[in-house]
Write a structure and sequence with these properties.
This is DUF3455 domain-containing protein. It is built from 1 helix and 8 strands, in the order H-E-E-E-E-E-E-E-E. By secondary structure, it is mainly beta. The N and C termini lie far apart (39 Å).
Length: 160
């Protein structure tokens, strides 16, 4: 079982992963409400597939959301984003493009499917994930049920 200590060690060992944050995608639309940096891990589980044998499958993200050097929220299974003012959103991927290198999770556009609370995310309708670094698992695994935390960073822009 994956421990929180193991996740923290994996996240803090990201010295080889660098990122440039704050660059908005050319095709962005809608008023930006909030831009945050996510620092965390993509959690994968080794599962049997019909055609490829054992393969790492995304289980959930686990990340801290940072704004101006200060932790303001979390990103987790759902996918869900929660911030300290009590607002939260859930999203669904509309489109994704391959990461700028094979080790990076895709940059993506998400539609917000659920808004909760009255804070900064209350009027958000879209999310962009850009500037992704890390987060992709190896191509195969060998022990069904095994868990793997792959460190990643990204910029999330919440738009109205």
């Amino acid at each position: 079982m994956l421990s929180m200590t193991g996740i923290i060690i994996a996240i803090t060992s990201m010295a080889g992963v660098s990122a440039t944050f704050g660059q908005e995608a050319d095709h962005a639309s809608g008023k930006p409400l909030l831009e945050v940096r996510a620092v965390g891990a993509q959690i994968y589980q080794c599962k049997e597939t019909d055609s490829d044998g054992l393969k790492w499958m995304l289980r959930e993200p686990i990340a801290t959301l940072v704004d101006g050097g200060r932790t303001i929220g979390t990103h987790s299974r759902g996918p869900t984003w929660k911030i300290e003012d009590g607002s939260s959103v859930e999203g669904r991927v509309l489109s994704a493009s391959t990461g700028h290198s094979t080790g990076n999770i895709p940059e993506s556009h998400l539609a917000i499917t659920r808004n909760n609370g009255r804070g900064r995310l209350a009027k958000a309708t879209m999310i962009e994930r850009i500037n992704t670094n890390g987060g992709m698992p190896p191509s195969s695994c060998s022990v069904a049920g095994a868990l793997l935390a792959v460190p990643y960073t990204a910029t999330y822009i919440f738009r109205q």
